[in-house]
Amino acid sequence: MSTHHQADKTPTPRYKPYKGPAGGWGALISVAQAWLTSDNALKNLRMMLKTNQNGGFDCPGCAWGDSPESGLVKFCENGAKAVNWEATKRRVDAAFFAKHSVSALLEQSDYWLEYQGRLTEPMRYNPETDRYTPVSWEAAFALIAEHLQDLASPDQAEFYTSGRASNEAAYLYQLFIRAFGSNNFPDCSNMCHEASGVALAQSIGVGKGTVTFDDFEHADAIFVLGQNPGTNHPRMLEPLREAVKRGAQVVCVNPLKERGLERFQHPQHPLEMLTNGDRPTNTAYLRPALGGDMALLRGMAKFLLQWERDAQAAGEPAVFDHGFLNEHTTGILDYTASLDDTAWDHLVEQSGLTLVDIERAARMYLKGKNVIMCWAMGITQHRHSVQTIQEIANLMLLRGNIGRPGAGLCPVRGHSNVQGDRTMGINERPPVAFLDALESRFKFKVPRENGHNVVEAIHAMLEGRAKVFIGLGGNFAQATPDSPRTAQALRNCDLTVQISTKLNRSHLMHGKEALILPCLGRTDIDIQAQGPQAVTVEDSFSMVHASNGQLQPLSSQMRSEPAIIAGMAAATLGTHPIDWNWVVADYSRIRELIADTIPGFKDFNTRLQHPGGFYLGNSAGARQWNTPTKRANFRPNVLPGDLIDERTRATGRLPDLILQSMRSHDQYNTTIYGLDDRYRGVKGQRDVLFVNEADIVRLGFKPGQKVDIVSIWNDQHERRVKNFTLLAFDIPAGQAAAYYPEVNPLVPLESTGAGSHTPTSKFVAICLEAASPSVLIAANAG
Ligand SMILES: Nc1nc2c(c(=O)[nH]1)N[C@H]1C(S)=C(S)[C@@H](COP(=O)(O)OP(=O)(O)OC[C@H]3O[C@@H](n4cnc5c(=O)[nH]c(N)nc54)[C@H](O)[C@@H]3O)O[C@H]1N2
Ligand SMILES: Nc1nc2c(c(=O)[nH]1)N[C@H]1C(S)=C(S)[C@@H](COP(=O)(O)OP(=O)(O)OC[C@H]3O[C@@H](n4cnc5c(=O)[nH]c(N)nc54)[C@H](O)[C@@H]3O)O[C@H]1N2
Ligand SMILES: [Mo]
Q1: How close is the Cα of 162 to the center of ligand 1, in Å?
Q2: In-domain check, residue 417
Q3: Sign of CA dihedral 723, 725, 726, 729
């Protein structure tokens, strides 16, 4: 039995607190190791120097943006890993698949699967040999067309997108699928920043962040909530450090003491490196209960309201920005009433913080003339995420902190083009204006009903309502909740198609028929009929810029994502509503179509010539409120009475702990680069559970002991992961943390955010049990 993660040999698991700063020598050593151990060292060094430079390619890592003016080399340790990983010369080809059956591959770890290299030729599953065997592109497209045309309704297919797809690929994909007749666009965003989009659209009329890169230089206070930039957005540490240096407040809100949020050493700053100096990245650090952020934010607003009333009574300067409130907002009275209705006790209890802490945070917010609030998955993956994000907006509106320099909202996006994909229409609930624009430009009747998001798509496949799954990138089987049910959902399909760069578990959890279509990545040179092509992406600050691949692809059999989409579309729809093969010959033809139909992209091809790209604009950032009231809306949501779900309560079993799932320093989502988590001091293992030592003792275990984790949810499914090592860690009592995707089997498909449908990956009620004996025997035997 091989359920372990190791590729070649098993490193000894170790845990030792990390003492260095984030970035700095540790990061450089790690990059150097990645280069030296990579089989393409020199080539990759040349690559890194091209990352995020004009004329180079957009880093396939995160969606953080860069100052267009800055001449700095713009890459980070984890960007280096992402580039290296893609630019391997190892190949997963016909010979590889001839050697390994699908059942044998299923025994391998996620790390092993991706480590085997790049997919280099189209493959089709053969049930007789349980192997993937080569198939021609034409036969693959014909098979897809046949399955799609045989469906009783276009809505019996699910079309997934992961956020690396370029604007050009995403636009063609949505056009193909809408012309085919469906809005079934489950995408990674449904599991990620969906709540930010939903919440902000209602509050301020646009579902994106309102700040740009330059605003960080002018902020007096920056709040970083539920985000671990040291690992996931390392380029963000520099503006944070600069802010602290110039005396701005940086307030971190995170139950874990993340190293990058504590100290940072600039890897491109020689003096700092030589003296081994480092700089703090925060001025205050609050450690709330999981899901306690809304209570904290509301508590801060309640303090402001109290001080506003005090100031009025004393005839002192106002705390609220009344000019802004009068001119730009609506609903303030309902909102202050909801503040009055929320008891202090409730705020303290739910936030997990003291009143003193909440007051201190409120004072820091008040002290900042210009405030930015940033957030990521610690905020978006809860049941009440939409309400929490609206509370961020409420708090910011009170002092006019939206739509002026140095201030604003900053949901820090994940995948490098996840924001762009939405802009291009990857949206299961498309805005009417967008559908109208498509209809008038392309003259076909676009589907108007909402389609499926990720969770709805899984239900549809489980129940047999959906029969075809096509994935434009990503790793649907591993990224989604309730893993065994998702696997079943994919296996129920008549056809699964994965358009991918690397082998992953989604290729192995396949339908009755299955295809693997190998595509070019961001770093690869993309040549079409009219010559080399650039693609475009949009970062977290709504900057659109070009990305040019730099490396010769490993095989001439790999195709670009736009070319694959055009192939599927032409086979399925002929030349309706466009000549697919003609537009992919030259991507500027796709950009013309984008310019015709999507606001902000007029003269797309011309504006792209501008070094650093162009700013799409943000209506709320310009204080134009595209809401039905034409104003920014205060949203007087009710603070949840109890964060523990009634479906957990209904079991009658009280959870031992609340679990959050998170990323280690050595992974990119479901892509595992290695088994270490440097800043958290973990080496050589991923099946660990971070728990407070007092809780370990309270529950009758010992640190280092192996346990099973079961989730507490009232339905017929047992959710259990086995043989996790208990790690005594500096984490607030009552909480636990573990790595995604290992604990995804614990997240119930039905446990989703209200209004966002996002799985509650940061709030899972669990109990611990002594490790299953069967596993222990297997482990001893092996
Ligand atoms: N190297 C690397 N870069 C990445 C990724 C990657 O996997 N690897 N993934 C990309 C993607 S798609 C995304 S979405 C982003 C993800 O970026 P992050 O959101 O930083 O990712 P997570 O590891 O999920 O971290 C969540 C953080 O929130 C904290 N947290 C958890 N629950 C709560 C809570 O209830 N309240 C508060 N205040 N904090 C909480 C955790 O302690 C942790 O520090 O990163 C992107 N960049
Ligand atoms: N429990 C738990 N679950 C989570 C999360 C969590 O925090 N906790 N986070 C959620 C979040 S924020 C996200 S964004 C999702 C991520 O979900 P996904 O985006 O589906 O997953 P990834 O791991 O990013 O996908 C990796 C695969 O993408 C393919 N790939 C890489 N580059 C390219 C490319 O350029 N083109 C194509 N076509 N394919 C490519 C490779 O084959 C690789 O194996 O997971 C979500 N799931
Ligand atoms: Mo994400």
Answers
A1: 17
A2: no
A3: negative
